[in-house]
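Need a sequence for this fold. Nothing fancy.
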């Protein structure tokens, strides 16, 4: 099998640089870097470069990816996309969904296999505890001081997994946004429906996420701690291997993890 030719958007960023390093070492038999794009690249002149690629990996920003997706649609160039960007606006989500009808897309807030296993385990724990009213749910996340979005995309993804597991507590009108508590102050007691989010920012923390299931006299904690950003790059390359050749549609790392398990 010939190596998959990659375009890397955000090639000079923290994870983008690690992807290039891993392609030259661990994944040299599967991939080849054919095109590098960053914030200084004039995208409108990149159709030639991108047409020689088999797949795009993105670790830039949702706004940068939205621009390139619009160009790919205009150029009628159905390039499969793996994106780890977070902090999507509603309009950016619509662009992503539109593009997923045109080409396969795998979008995930956290590309690490361990973090995605945390999502699955937390959802299962929530499902098993949903009928036990004394268990409350809180999510704690910690990242480096340069992290822009809060809560992180991973924390929100974890919240969605838990919300789905707790579905017996909610009505059809409820959503994660309607039951989430992002800032706790004042004199009101928490409700049983509530899923609390706490955020820590500081230093060079790569990323830590814990789901607390807190009962009377006991507490269950499910945690994932990232200590090396290579896990995100390695996960993205595994996702690219899985996505290549798939039908059009919007996918997540859950599919990749289920294949490995």
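Here you go.
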């Amino acid at each position: 099998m010939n190596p998959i030719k990659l375009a890397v958007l955000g090639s000079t960023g923290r994870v983008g640089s690690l992807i290039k390093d891993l392609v030259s070492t661990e994944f040299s038999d599967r991939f080849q870097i054919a095109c590098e794009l960053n914030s200084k690249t004039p995208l409108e002149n990149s159709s030639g470069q991108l047409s020689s690629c088999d797949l795009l990996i993105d670790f830039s920003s949702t706004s940068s990816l939205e621009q390139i997706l619009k160009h790919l649609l205009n150029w009628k160039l159905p390039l499969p996309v793996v994106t780890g960007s977070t902090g999507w606006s509603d309009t950016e989500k619509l662009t992503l969904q539109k593009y997923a009808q045109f080409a396969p897309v795998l979008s995930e807030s956290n590309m690490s296999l361990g973090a995605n296993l945390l999502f699955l385990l937390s959802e299962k724990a929530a499902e098993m505890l949903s009928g036990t009213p004394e268990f409350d749910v809180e999510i704690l996340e910690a990242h480096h001081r340069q992290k822009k979005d809060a809560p992180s995309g991973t924390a929100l993804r974890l919240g969605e997994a838990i919300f789905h597991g707790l579905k017996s507590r909610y009505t059809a009108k409820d959503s994660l946004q309607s039951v989430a508590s992002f800032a706790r102050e004042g004199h009101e007691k928490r409700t049983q429906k509530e899923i609390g989010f706490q955020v820590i920012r500081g230093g060079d923390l790569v990323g830590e996420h814990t789901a607390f299931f807190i009962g009377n006299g006991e507490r269950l904690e499910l945690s994932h701690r990232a200590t090396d950003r290579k896990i995100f790059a390695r996960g993205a390359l595994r996702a690219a291997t899985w996505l290549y050749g798939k039908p059009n549609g919007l996918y997540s790392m859950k599919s990749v993890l289920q294949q490995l398990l």
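For context: Residues 113-226 form a domain with the Dihydrodipicolinate Reductase; domain 2 fold (CATH 3.30.360.10).
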